[in-house]
Amino acid sequence: MANEKIPYKIYLEESEMPKQWYNVRADMKKKPAPLLNPSTGKPVTAEELSRVFCEELVKQELDDTSAYIDIPEEIREFYKMYRPSPVVRAYCLEKQLDTPAKIYYKFEGNNTSGSHKLNSAIAQAYYAKQQGLKGVTTETGAGQWGTALSMACSYFGLDCQVYMVKCSYEQKPFRREVMRTYGASITPSPSETTGVGRKILEEFPDTKGSLGCAISEAVEAASAQEGYRYVLGSVLSQVLLHQTVIGLEAKTALEKYGVKPDIIIGCAGGGSNLGGLISPFMGEKLRGEADYRFIAVEPASCPSLTRGKYVYDFCDTGKVCPLQKMYTLGSSFMPSANHAGGLRYHGMSSVLSELYDQGLMEAVSVEQTSVFAAAQQFARVEGILPAPESSHAIRVAIDEALRCKETGEEKNILFGLTGTGYFDMYAYAAFNDGKMGDYIPTDEEIAVSLGRIPNIGD
Amino acid sequence: MANEKIPYKIYLEESEMPKQWYNVRADMKKKPAPLLNPSTGKPVTAEELSRVFCEELVKQELDDTSAYIDIPEEIREFYKMYRPSPVVRAYCLEKQLDTPAKIYYKFEGNNTSGSHKLNSAIAQAYYAKQQGLKGVTTETGAGQWGTALSMACSYFGLDCQVYMVKCSYEQKPFRREVMRTYGASITPSPSETTGVGRKILEEFPDTKGSLGCAISEAVEAASAQEGYRYVLGSVLSQVLLHQTVIGLEAKTALEKYGVKPDIIIGCAGGGSNLGGLISPFMGEKLRGEADYRFIAVEPASCPSLTRGKYVYDFCDTGKVCPLQKMYTLGSSFMPSANHAGGLRYHGMSSVLSELYDQGLMEAVSVEQTSVFAAAQQFARVEGILPAPESSHAIRVAIDEALRCKETGEEKNILFGLTGTGYFDMYAYAAFNDGKMGDYIPTDEEIAVSLGRIPNIGD
């Protein structure tokens, strides 16, 4: 182990950090389908989107031709506080698995937000500040996005209003306090502060909320206040764009040591981390310069890619956001209370959906208990306590490494370790106590929510 | 900011990591006083200590002449999983304070244990493994040490039995689950598993325990089991020795950029982090090669250096451990429920006590609410959410930087950021809600516990 030339952690110099984000849509021959205005059924215009999102972010959202977009200097300065993040060679895990495969992971948990979400949060906060806004609104479920956005807003002196799904608000008081420490105001959703919230509370006074409802409240709150816009932590193409710092750094780091990954694995909820990790490699594949296997890993409890339909659907349950063509289980699909809150989303990024539809990426779904078994195994030898979301990628990386053990292949496996699990100890407790279950929706359940998808677009 | 030559984070290469620990006692003309056997009043022998501690660790504990001690290859391999840790230039904090001072911090929170404790935990686990032991026992209060030791034992396949102060066990279920995830067994202390525990429970059935009691239980449990020894996370000279990786790395990193710190600041509970950070610099001072100001920061609620007495005292309330000459408030001193659990210890490392007594180091005490105000200020601009313990050093670093603002001096300030506060959100919540108080023991209270110190030794 000691004689290997590749260090445990490959750190780049600050000067090697990417100066531009990479927009994979520019290299796609068949582009992702445009967002549609739900009332007209026509592609949404920049002007329409600008009522909800910051102007510069709208440009990025709609731009599917520019391959590279400059990262503003101020954002790069902030990135330097916690980036470049390391690519870690999982020597200890390899040894334990006794596999000829070489396992690498890009670790995005080394910042207080605890996940990769900060990469896009700081960009979105920056553009809001540039536009002269007072603040932003958003929703958060598991709390990683809300935490990241709170940090970013604190840095730029922006007001940050977070609608936190009520059950998370109550079950994750520590997440809430982290956000408050960064100066954000947190409202349990549904709330009395919005029309949508009041309506839902009237109908279901005991509801513990949902991500869809919190999105609708945050969007309403943004439009109701002068100088506010709404921001979102995943699904959107702009978010994937910002997250390409993950893949760009990973590629540069591995190239320094002459390593070409054979398999690249990431967990997939809305797609922000996976899209960010694979984009630069996918670009090479699209341009015919190299080939890679890409694997999206989703929870068996919320299998949008592996069991969903590729159609236009609503992004939120309140149906206030544009329609997006994506792999979806239907916006009425209610995933079980899986502990990977960040992967409980009914749809998938339109970019990743299109790449998957073109057969350029694979997808697998894995069950919760097998994910936590992988998480525990990983933690005990590699030290890092992974987030439940990230552990989906660990599960499949271990499975692929064990396959290499059978075949004797010395494959290079790269996976994204998106964050840490410090705020997910309830879930670990359930696993440690043998009280964790698995939930796989039946074909009938999925058919019902798929049946409710509106018949709009192509 | 962008034109500065010093990066935000100074990372060393793996090859620049220290290969030896530095033993500051070797350069002290007047050595720390020896540990005494409480029953004989004479210096404790290696043989006596070996009944409680691993043999190699006993050697390190008693060795006050070897300046450098080799770090075994296996420990260095483990260190590579999370070291070298960065020295961060606090550009954002400097800007916010508008100070001419240059602030650097050595960040030890980038590992799952969340603190510097892992540096010694892995060393102690390694020597236990080398000795062919089955496992180790320990106590934990705040949980940082227990977490670090659980990780280290998991890595070496050792059994790890942690006696966790009952109130922490109940109030910090997440810490407990992290340890369980790493395979440790956790017993709330006092417990029915030891004689000491049963005796205390009989007398005080409702007690929530104390660190002193947990130590006594852990020591008893180690002696009661074949192939077990007891390990401790602070206070001892062996622990300070292992922790010198902090100071050695910090010194190398700063020297690469030609930076000589004027002031070096660390929080002080038992002294493990402070001792580790300052030792290499103190060595230069002792040898007359350079001069530095060293500041130990302790909580006003548990001010062993600033208000204690320099005498022989018990290290634990059960009085089973050797007597140590140290600054102490008396082993019967009951510190208030300050949120910096890691600084609630009645005594101080004998090495630091002696250095302080010789006037080579300063000490200040700070109040809890001012510490959390500094923590919040730091988090909002530097991103990292600091542990309450570490925030004591932040408080004084900010105070010194503001002093430089008044005088116009461009001092270099280095402080130790020992860990993250993810598991301390109850404390942050109290601060966020304006419900945090300060507690300063009265002279009478301190006099009472000082009066109970046995009159042993010189």
Explain what you see:
The structure is a homodimer of 458-residue chains. Chain A is α/β, with parallel strands linked by helices and 458 residues long. Chain A has 18 helices and 15 strands. The first copy, chain A, has helices at residues 46-50, 55-62, 73-79, 91-97, 118-130, 144-156, 166-171, 173-181, 195-203, 211-224, 237-256, 272-286, 304-307, 350-357, 368-382, 388-407, 425-432, 443-451, and strands at 9-10, 20-22, 68-70, 87-89, 102-107, 135-140, 159-165, 185-189, 228-230, 263-267, 293-299, 309-314, 323-328, 362-366, 412-417. In chain A, the strands form four sheets. The first copy, chain A, has a seven-stranded mixed β-sheet, sandwiched between helices. In chain A, a hairpin with an 8-residue loop joins strand 12 (309-314) and strand 13. In chain A, helix 4 (91-97) crosses helix 15. The N and C termini of chain A lie far apart (55 Å).
Characteristic key phrases:
homodimer, four-stranded parallel sheet, alpha/beta, seven-stranded mixed sheet, 458 residues, 15 strands, 18 helices
Number of helices of chain A: 18
Quick check: average pLDDT of chain A?
Answer: 93
Strand content of chain A: 15-25%
Structural class of chain A: alpha/beta
Biggest chain pair interface: A-B, 45 and 45 residues
Biggest sheet strand line-up of chain A: 1-4-5-15-10-11-14
The strand count of chain A comes to 15
Helix content of chain A: 40-55%
Regions of chain A with pLDDT < 50 over 5+ consecutive residues? none
Span from first to last CA of chain A? 55 Å
Radius of gyration from the alpha-carbon trace of chain A, in angstroms: 21 Å
Biggest sheet of chain A, open or closed, and with what strands and sense? 7 strands, mixed
What is the 3D shape of chain A? globular
